[in-house]
Design a protein that fits this description.
With about 180 residues, this protein is an alpha/beta fold. It has seven helices and six strands, in the order E-H-E-H-H-E-H-E-H-E-H-E-H. It has one domain: Rossmann fold, CATH 3.40.50.
Length: about 180
């Protein structure tokens, strides 16, 4: 069974922008590409799990989301990074959704699709719902990055089961050096 790292997108990998839907507005945080490459080199499969309620709210289309992901993939491929799969929950927050975080549904789907060992996998994000998603799926550890909304979440009281780190490179450093 493979190990995986599940990653939130906005505020974790890239700058948080209200309802990002234009590829040219993607700004990857410094050090993200090299950090993700380190995870891959250590044998982790990489997945993105993202809520994109802008689709459900009618602000943009799924095609817009795919174009943003294509841009992200192209930029990170320059560092040799490849995502196994990107899971998207496009529903409005008030609409029924099996995959919208904090639901662990997409992590369970990845477990089945790719033969993952969730007990040896991790979740990294900048919101409490990201931490809860990982916890709900039974991952080894969920990490809260202070990027995006993370610093604000920490001030309000980070989830007690989260490891809090400055950013994605710090999360990777912690993860690769933890027992």
């Amino acid at each position: 069974m493979s190990r995986a790292v599940f990653l939130d997108r906005d505020g974790t990998l890239i700058e948080e922008k209200d309802y990002l839907h234009r590829p040219e507005d993607v700004v990857i945080f410094p050090g993200v590409g090299l950090a993700l490459k380190r995870l891959q080199d250590a044998g982790f499969e990489l997945f993105i799990v993202t809520n994109q309620s802008g689709v459900g709210r009618g602000y943009f289309t799924m095609e817009d989301v795919h174009r943003v992901h294509e841009r992200l993939a192209i930029e990170l491929a320059k560092d040799g990074v490849h995502f196994k799969k990107i899971y998207i929950a496009p529903e409005h927050p008030d609409a029924p959704s099996r995959g919208r975080k904090p639901s662990p549904q997409f992590l369970f789907v990845a477990f089945t699709e790719f033969g993952l060992d969730l007990s040896e996998s991790y979740m990294i994000g900048d919101k409490s719902i990201d931490v809860e998603c990982g916890t709900n799926a039974g991952v080894k550890q969920s990490l809260l990055a202070r990027t995006g909304y993370g610093a604000e979440v920490e001030k309000k009281g980070a989830p007690r089961n989260a490891v809090v780190v400055d950013d994605l490179p710090a999360a990777v450093e912690w993860l690769l050096n933890s027992p």
